[in-house]
Design brief:
The structure holds 2 protein chains of 2 kinds. By secondary structure, chain A is mostly beta strands. Chain A has strands at 3-7, 10-12, 18-25, 33-39, 45-51, 58-60, 68-73, 78-83, 92-99, 105-108, 112-116. Classes of the chains: A mainly beta, B mainly beta.
C-alpha cells in the first residue's frame, strides 16, 4: 500500500532553517510527481511546492519562493523540503503528497508540524 | 495567485443534498478540467473525493459528484449523512507561475 512518511519537523526560531523529508513506499517513486502542502493551525490548505519525476521542473508558491527548496532522490524514494529564512507565518503542518499527471493529490502523508517561534 | 472562493459554511439535514461552489478565473478553474475536491475531518489527513472535475476515485461514495460551469466548479453531496460533516477544499491547476491553487475551504454541517 502507498505510504508517505514525513520527518524533520520541529521548533525553530525565526530566521532559522529546517529540512523536511518524506519517505515513500508502496509505489514506484520515480514514476510520480510530488508536492508539499501545508496547513497553518485552524486554517486552510496551502500548496507549497511541486517537483516533476526527474526534478527538471519545479514550482513554488509565491509565499515561499526564494526561501524554500524542493528536491528528490529517486534512488532513496525520498522527497525533501529545505526551508530557510523561516518566518512565524510558516508555522503549519506540512504534508507530503503524491501528485497525479492531471494535477491532483491522490495520497497524502500524515503531516509533520513545524513551529517557528522565538 | 489568490485562493479560489468557496462559501465558508454550508449545512443540510440528513438525506438532503447540498452543493459547495468553488469560483476561480479563466486562468484556473475556467481554463482547465483539472479541479479536484478534498474532504478533511478534524485532526485528519485530507482525502481526495473528486478529480478532473467529475471523476470519483475508487472507494468514494457515489453520493459525491462534481461539475463545472464557466469559472465555477461545484461539489454536490446527495443523501447527506452525519459522516459527511467535515471541511471541504477545492483545488485547481493554474497557468500562473505557481501551478496550483486551493480554495479557502467550506465547513459542512449536518443538522
Amino acid at each position: 500500500q502507498v505510504q508517505l512518511v514525513e520527518s524533520g519537523g520541529g521548533l525553530v526560531k525565526p530566521g532559522g532553517s529546517l529540512r523536511l523529508s518524506c519517505a515513500a513506499s508502496g509505489f514506484t517513486f520515480s514514476d510520480y510527481y510530488m508536492s508539499w502542502i501545508r496547513q497553518a493551525p485552524g486554517k486552510g490548505l496551502e500548496w507549497v511546492s511541486y517537483i516533476s519525476k526527474t526534478g527538471s521542473r519545479i514550482y513554488y508558491a509565491d509565499s515561499v519562493k526564494g526561501r524554500f527548496t524542493i528536491s528528490r532522490d529517486n534512488a532513496k524514494s525520498s522527497l525533501y523540503l529545505q526551508m530557510n529564512s523561516l518566518r512565524t507565518e510558516d508555522t503549519a503542518a506540512y504534508y507530503c503528497a503524491r501528485d497525479s499527471s492531471t494535477w491532483y493529490f491522490d495520497y497524502w502523508g500524515q503531516g509533520i508540524p513545524v513551529t517557528v517561534s522565538s | 495567485q489568490s485562493a479560489l472562493t468557496q462559501p465558508a459554511s454550508v449545512s443540510g439535514s440528513p438525506g438532503q443534498s447540498i452543493t459547495i461552489s468553488c469560483t476561480g478565473t479563466s486562468s484556473d478553474v475556467g481554463g482547465f478540467n483539472f479541479v479536484s475536491w478534498y474532504q478533511q475531518h478534524p485532526g485528519k489527513v485530507p482525502k481526495l473525493m473528486i478529480y478532473d472535475v467529475i471523476n470519483r476515485p475508487s472507494g468514494v461514495s457515489n453520493r459525491f459528484s462534481g461539475s463545472k460551469s464557466g469559472n465555477t466548479a461545484s461539489l454536490t453531496i446527495s443523501g447527506l449523512q452525519a459522516e459527511d460533516e467535515a471541511d471541504y477544499y477545492c483545488s485547481s491547476y493554474t497557468n500562473s507561475s505557481t501551478r496550483y491553487v486551493f480554495g479557502i475551504g467550506t465547513k459542512v454541517t449536518v443538522l
